[in-house]
Structures are given as structure tokens and as C-alpha cells.
Amino acid sequence: MFEYYRTRDRSGLTTERQSSGQQFIPGQQPFPEQPGIQPGPQPGVQPGPETFSPHGPEPDKTEIPPGPNQDPETEPQRVKKTVQGTNKKGEVNTIKELGQLSIPQTKSSIHCMPIVGQIEGHMVLPPQNKTTKYEHIIPQLVALEENPEIEGVLIVLNTIGGDVEAGLAIAEMITSMSKPTVSLVLGGGHSIGVPVSVAANYSFIAETASMTIHPIRLTGLVIGVPQTYEYLDKMQDRVVNFITRHSKVTDVRLRELMFRTGELARDIGTVLIGNDAVECGLIDEVGGISSAVAKLNQLIEEKRQNPGGLVQ
Helices 251-258 and 229-245: crossing angle, nearest 10°? Predict the structure, then answer.
């Protein structure tokens, strides 16, 4: 009497043989069921891919974290996708794409507005220049004025100056806001950056920051049109009048600093550093970010207690 048994190689191919060593041919003799032996595929048939019933249990898709000697770049299938992507809320989880660390989003009633580089106005500057475009700042100021969740604006400056018309436009927008504003000069607030610095309700300057005061220098063109000396003189008066109205410096003192000779090489004017700007009345106080934020919170609280009053 012959006994039948099955063998399966590594590829999954099942072979049925008799105890005599001969291969079992289906259909010639019945093959008795043996305890513990599971039926397999027909001989010579490659097993197909595993399928899962839609009503059955889902396969285990638990992602295995990379080990200490594994490289996520060479084994990306073992690393969670959030390492190089975004989470369900759309928040960036890495600095690979942006080149900077994502700051946690926290609700704040203070908006920080940086004005850095060169203030760009009617003329487009070369792409290698770091610029602040006034057509970007003005709509942002309008949005801040209408946003009920924003109660104060902190203007941080580190600018070399730029377009006179654009700088005055930004300064006028800041000073006309109904919400409290505080400016902080870091690094430098030069040229047309001076009116922007004094446009806020209260101004700070870092101890090592500087401000250059000098006359308006133009190529003879304003908005691409040749102008006369009288027009340039009136534009100079516009800048001087704005600064004196929104700071404690007098007209005489400001023009003295503006037309001083011997301090700047190949130019006229004055460089004020830190406390010098406070002593002449141009800036209110020497301080940093903590002082500026504390002062802005104080102005916000005063505004809450007296909604219809003017912020001083």
C-alpha cells in the first residue's frame, strides 16, 4: 500500500509524491487527506499574489522606524512619510523644502512687520538686492487695520533707505493707523528709513544700531521726469517736516545734522549711534525686543481702556 505526501520548495511549488518516490499524478488514484497538511496549488502552477477580503481583517501596515544603522534615504519604505512631507493639517514638518525651521503657530494680538534691505518704490532694483517693496507693505497695513484680532503692530527696521516717495508713503500709512504701533531699529535705519522709524507711536533703537541723516540725493529724476531744484527742495522740506512732527527733534537741529560736513566721507550728513539718536530727540528710547514688546502691550492696554482716545 502506497502512502502519499506533499513537499513545497522555496518558490511555493508543491509536489505530490508516493512513498516509492514516484510523482503522484492527479486523477489516477485518490489522494487521502493527511492531518495537518493544508491543500496547496496545483503542481506546476505558480502561486499568485495574496488577496484580502474586503470584509476580512486589514493587513498590518505598521511602519517600522529606522534603526540606528539604517539610512532613511536608502530605506524610505521603513520611514514614516511625514519625515519628508506634511501632516494632515498641511503644516510643514521639516526644513528640507523651505530652508528654515517652522515656528509653532500661536495666537497673538501683535503683528511683527519687518522693513529690511532697500525700500523699493517706482524703480525695480536688481534681483541681488535685498528689498522691501512698498506695494507689498501698504496692502498689509490695510489688512492689519481691518483685522479685529490684531491690536498692535511692531515695526522692525534694518534698512539702508531707498525710494523717497515709497518711504514717505509707508511712513504716512503707519502714522495714520488707529492701532498702537512701536518701531525698533536694529542694525540700521538710514536715510528714508528715519521717517519710517519715527512714524510709530513709540520708537526704540538698539544700543549698537545706527541712523544716517543726510539730504535727499537724486539723479535729477522723480518718477522718470526731470525736476527742478525747487521741487527737490520742497521734497526735502516734506521729509524734514514729517520727522519733526513725529519726534522730539527740532527743525534747526535736524537740518544741522543733515548738512554737517566732515563726518561722512565724500558726503554731508551725520551718523547717530544708539543713545545719540535718543539724546537729539529723534528716537524715544534705547532698547531691544523685550522693551519694544512690553511698550506695545502697554499701549494696547491703554487703547482697551480708552477705545476712542488717541495713542500717545
Answer: 130
Alpha-carbon distance of 130 to 206, in angstroms, equals: 21
Identify the CA nearest to 196 among candidates 237, 274, 138, 262. Answer: 138
Q: Domain boundaries in the chain?
A: 1-30, 110-305
Structurally, what CATH architecture does the domain formed by 110-305 represent? Alpha-Beta Complex (3.90)
Radius of gyration of the chain (CA): 37
The mean of the pLDDT values for the chain is 76
What amino acid positions are annotated as catalytic residues?
191, 214
Distances (CA, A) of 194 to 116, 210, 277, 292: 13, 10, 10, 17
Q: Which of 64-68, 108-112, 290-294 has the highest mean pLDDT?
A: 290-294
pLDDT at residue 52 greater than cutoff 80: no
